[in-house]
Design a protein that fits this description.
With about 120 residues, the protein is α+β, with helices and mostly antiparallel strands. About 25% of the residues lie in helices and about 25% in strands. The chain has one domain: Alpha-Beta Plaits (2-Layer Sandwich), CATH 3.30.70. The chain is globular, with a radius of gyration of 17 Å. The model has no long low-confidence stretch (mean pLDDT about 95).
Length: about 120
């Protein structure tokens, strides 16, 4: 089944944390901790290459573009799954030393509903 809800967060890697150190923590510790929660569908990681300053129609996107390292997407089947995800972590908290604290500097964190526009079959 396709996810209908996403928690989307943009963040920077904290200055002083090497990419190698961050990647090891992310893949060996953080993602296994998140995915231990049975209510999350999956996680997608997007590394930001650069801001885009104009739309495909040539309109400016922002006076001052946001600049940050990555966008992560936490996917959930529905609102109930997301609520259960939060409750699961209340009962099974991630220890502070395994958390993003001191590693990730959050720029934004939002909950979104997913709608897709797809090309019709040919």
């Amino acid at each position: 089944m396709s996810s209908t809800l996403k928690a989307i967060l943009g963040y920077n890697i904290v200055e002083g944390v090497s990419i190698e150190e961050y990647e090891a923590w992310l893949w060996d510790i953080h993602y296994p901790d998140l995915l231990a929660n049975p209510f999350i569908d999956h996680v997608e990681l997007n590394t930001v290459l650069r801001p885009i300053t104009t739309t495909s129609a040539g309109t400016a996107t922002a006076e001052t573009p946001l600049v940050f390292d990555r966008i992560a997407e936490l996917h959930f089947i529905d609102h109930e799954a997301y609520a259960n995800y939060l409750n699961w972590f209340k009962e099974n908290p991630i220890p502070r030393e395994r958390s993003p604290e001191g590693r990730s500097e959050f720029v934004f964190y939002v909950l979104t509903e997913v709608k897709k526009a797809e090309r019709p079959p040919s």
